[in-house]
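agent> Task received from the user: take the single chain below, predict its 3D structure, and emit structure tokens. No templates, no multimer pairing.
agent> Plan: (1) validate residues, (2) run structure prediction, (3) serialize to tokens, (4) report one or two observations.
agent> Step 1 OK, no nonstandard residues flagged.
tool_call: predict_structure(input=
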Amino acid sequence: MEYNINKTNLYNNFLELTNIFPDSVKGLYITGSHQYGCNREDSDIDLTAIVNEYPSCGEQFISDKLNVNFYKVSSIHRLLFTEAYIPLIEAFYADEKDIIISFFIDTIPIKDLLDDVSQLRVSCSQLTSNSWVKGQKKLVTSDYDLNMGLKSIFHSIRIQDFVIQLLDGTTTPNYGSCNYILYDLFSMSEKLYREELWDAIKSKYYAIYKDKKSRIKSLIPKEGLNSHKRKSELLEILKKHGVTVSSSLVEDLLNFN
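)
tool_result: status=success, residues=257
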């Protein structure tokens, strides 16, 4: 369920709690459950902040009601355009309601945004695989945490769905497209516990999780990954020799006959 947020009040609270200089803040986005539309009335608020310099708290600020991840302006090109860092991609395509300060000017299709779209397959695979494994761990081991476990399973599917939407060409993704899964997971947890809950979740959702992985692989074929690997290797060689070149120039070199 969505709850209206007073963005002016939120911004002022953000400044006060993080003790950051306003002039340093170049972008500020509402992310997490409020962006997905699955937040509850008591949900904390997650923010992505793009700043000139980190505040005194460093790269992250965590409190009972506000969680902020900070990214320096100087790192945005590497994290977003080169490494396809998904938390920043979610900010890049944010809906107007979730933008407090806009850092990005134009919203363009993902295949035009990234230096190499194959990196998106890599980053998505790593993130969602870790999330699925984390979900199982939090549900069945001594490191039990029901809330975190269910949310991790949800994100392992939701993130893939988000990436698929972008690869299909949209610039206005539906962040709430998988919320029904989260609601169902919590409903299942009211009747089942630990191993029984995990077995039921795996039986119902593992095929969906794998189908979305297969869909992403079909949208970004393995040939693209090989190209990305060759480009990374060439960039590393040039770097060792003190040569700095753009990613596009490396692509031209690899394609030169």
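agent> Step 4: summary for the user.
The CA atoms of residues 118 and 227 lie 8 Å apart.
agent> Done.
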